[in-house]
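User: structure tokens for VanZ family protein, please.
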Amino acid sequence: MLRILLFITCFVVVCYGLFRPEVPPAIFRGADRVMHFSAFLGVSFSARLAFPKLPAWLVWGLLLAFAPISEWLQSVIQPVNRSFNWLDIVANTMGVLTALLCYVIYVKWLHPRLFNQDHGH
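Assistant: Done. Predicted tokens:
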């Protein structure tokens, strides 16, 4: 239950960050990409931890689909202040793929009993 709560919290925070009207402050050059990458890394890893019994292809497939769809939705929901950006999609996708790599490492080396239960990571 705690893992599901963690995922829901991550998902809500990511959606708030993506769909709020204000553009996040540019703390440094490329900060927006770092935020996109980090957000999708966190929400993706927490999603897989929250739903270990779901088929891996379904969880990772939905997350990979959400990466570009969320960027498109951002420009639809907040067309005045937010804009579609291909580099944000790349950052989102890289966050998901990095989470996949982290999850494989997590289950294979840190929790090998999960590796046998997980169908395809």
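User: Anything notable?

Assistant: Residues 41 and 97 are 8 Å apart (CA to CA).
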